[in-house]
Amino acid sequence: MLPQTPTQEFDAELNRVVTRLRSLPIDKLGDVQGTALALTEALLACSATLGDAAPVALPAIEPRTYADVIAVLAQDVRNAAIDETHLVPATSALTDARRALP
After folding, report:
1. At what angle do helices 6-23 and 88-100 cross, to 10 degrees?
2. CA dist., res. 64 & res. 98, Å (int)
3. Residue 3 has what pLDDT?
4. Cα–Cα distances in Å, from 24 out to 73, 82, 84?
5. For residue 1, is it within any domain?
6. What is the radius of gyration, based on Cα positions, of the chain?
């Protein structure tokens, strides 16, 4: 396997998490609430660290929207990153979430 750039690693982990969430049966999404919400908080914190316009706490989100919310928040992090090394903390959060998902 060829070494990946931080951007490629970020994109790969994001794709894995979103795909895994979208493939879960709807009645099982409630089981991953803690993981999904922790990831949204981590992505918001990454955005804030990168100087993104004062992210606010998310309102309560429905389990069926976890994948979409995470995809949007990750894109915000990607857009706020000045260079690709800034994506490393978000990639780490995505990796941790992926490993915690069933």
Report:
1. 30
2. 17
3. 64
4. 20, 34, 30
5. no
6. 13
Which token pair is 14?
């994001």
Place of tokens 């069933």: 102
Q: Convert the pLDDT of each residue in 69-89 to its tens digit.
A: 999 999 999 999 999 999 999
In the block, residue with structure tokens 């979208």: 22
Where in the sequence is the domain holding 62, given as residue range(s)? Answer: 6-100
Domain count, the chain: 1
The answer to whether 40 and 73 have CB atoms below 8 angstroms apart is yes
Nearest to 79 by CA among 40, 68, 24, 71: 71
Tens-place pLDDT, residues 31-57: 999 999 999 999 999 999 998 776 677
Does residue 1 surpass a pLDDT of 60? no
